[in-house]
Amino acid sequence: MEKYLYEDLAKLEDSHWWHISKRNSVIELIKLIGRKNLRILDIGCGTGGNLKAFSRYGEVWGIDNAAEAINYCKSKGLKNVKLGSSDKTGFDGATFDAVTLLDVLEHVEEAKTLKEIKRILKADGKLIITVPAFSWLWSRWDEVLHHKRRYTSSGLADLLAKSGFDVQKISYMYSFLVLPAYLVRFIKSKVSGKKYSSDFELSSPLLNKIFLTTSRLERFFWMTFGLPLGTSLICVAKK
Hints:
- It holds the Pfam family Methyltransf_11.
- GO terms for molecular function: S-adenosylmethionine-dependent methyltransferase activity.
- This protein has about 240 residues and is of the alpha/beta class.
- It has one domain (about 5-239): Rossmann fold (3-Layer(aba) Sandwich).
- The chain is about 40% helix and about 20% strand.
- The protein has a seven-stranded mixed sheet with strand order 3-2-1-4-5-7-6, with helices on both faces.
């Protein structure tokens, strides 16, 4: 991710509907583990917005490979954070009950990262993943974020299975965004010149509220039935 975006992320991760919705969706999956004395690692913790929320369910650690991200975390008083990579976390084996990998897998070498996560998870530990969906939604925003790929449900499920994980739930999210996202990104792709505007930018307060409410209603459907289309994928898999 470009360095200038960390400031945007730090400012908006507690108010932008997309960040709030994703965080709440992951929390619902953490709740399904069924207890609160968990040890959780958030790989690619960014500026720390998820760490405080996840701490309600146990001891939470965060790692990120960007010093800017870790500095923001520490400025918020978060102590269990350190520089680290997704394939070399520096933790002992069988340390964590759950690992969250939220919009990270698309940045890294998949096989090495999943091997490391499997190593540090306890027996029957859970891996919770979010990734961007569908290559045809690729845009300049993916390039600004340094994405290497986007995923389909079947492709992600196959990757996890080959890495020794048992996929328990997988679904697309934000189905209501597919058409507008495609159109907006197509238009933005035609704009050249100055620094690309951030998709982290906060929409109007009204739209922010509408999208947050819509995503909350949608969550019931993807958790219950699964959705066949969306701009993101969410998955929980067991070691």
